[in-house]
Design brief:
This protein is an alpha+beta fold. It contains twelve helices and 14 strands. The strands form four sheets. The protein has a five-stranded antiparallel sheet with strand order 4-5-10-6-7. A hairpin with a 3-residue loop joins strand 6 and strand 7.
Length: 264
């Protein structure tokens, strides 16, 4: 690991002020620190957000659950408010990684990293959430822009994510057994805005499966989701599965997610 300066501010304003030169925000560190240990990433300064209490709350605001950027996966999974209003989100958080990852990793860190196989991006897009930063609010459909890329500008800090409570939702993933990352993960929701189907693990970035959304809009059944033949355009192919296999698994995981919704 290369040498770096370490700062731990106590407020968002102080964190922003520390972001000059070659500096990066540090959230849970589950991805960044590993990359730095392998010398795949380096920064002159890490600005640790762990001391900012304002980023660690979970609250209900009208029909939304607002989760601070530094709330851990374990805390999301254990939250009574999340379990009551968006149980699918609590279940998703409880299935990320292992206990150490869940107790250290954070919501904000995960979506800022934008790993193509991470679970949280599927929930953000699948629920039509809003990402709040110290500068603006970003709609889910505009936040993830590519492989490890987001709409965040240099020095822009995620402060919270607002998730709308929906009538029905479920997340199902076909996971890599060692890492528990999604080889294919599908988040399905049905609410006031209609049906949303978000897919992670299958492309370079999370995306909406509009073909399955249309099928479920006409018939919200597992059979309708499974009958959709997803195109292989831009679908990942690697040692874990071909593009054709992953495309087929999108429909299978979507059908299982719908079945889980209907079984609640």
């Amino acid at each position: 690991m290369y040498a770096f300066e370490y700062q731990r501010p106590a407020s968002v304003a102080d964190a922003k002020a520390a972001m000059n030169g070659d500096a990066r925000f540090l959230a849970g560190g589950q991805s960044l620190i590993q990359a730095m240990k392998l010398r795949l990433s380096s920064s002159e300064r890490l600005v640790d957000l762990g001391g900012i209490a304002d980023l660690k709350s979970i609250k209900v605001d009208g029909g939304n659950v607002v989760i601070g950027a530094m709330v851990t996966h374990a805390a999301v999974g254990a939250s009574a408010d999340v379990q009551r209003l968006i149980p699918a989100l609590a279940e998703l958080a409880g299935g990320i990684g292992d206990p150490m990852v869940r107790n250290m990793g954070t919501l904000g860190g995960s979506i800022a990293n934008a790993d193509p196989a991470a679970c949280y991006p599927a929930a953000v897009v699948g629920l039509g959430a809003t990402v709040h930063t110290n500068q603006r609010a970003i709609a889910a459909d505009s936040f993830f822009t590519g492989l490890y890329e987001t709409a965040l500008q240099p020095g822009e800090l995620i402060t919270a994510v607002s998730f709308p409570a929906v009538a029905k939702a479920a997340y199902v993933k076909y996971k890599q057994p060692a890492s528990r990352f999604a080889l294919v993960g599908v988040f399905v929701s049905q609410g006031a805005a209609g049906v949303r189907v978000a897919v992670t693990g299958a492309k370079g970035s999370v995306f909406r499966a509009t073909q399955i959304e249309q099928a479920l809009g006409a018939s919200f059944t597992p059979e309708a989701a499974k009958a959709v033949k997803m195109p292989t355009t831009d679908i990942n192919a690697d040692m874990h599965g071909s593009a054709e296999y992953r495309a087929a698994m999108i429909s299978v995981m979507a059908s299982r997610a719908v079945a889980a919704v209907l079984a609640r």
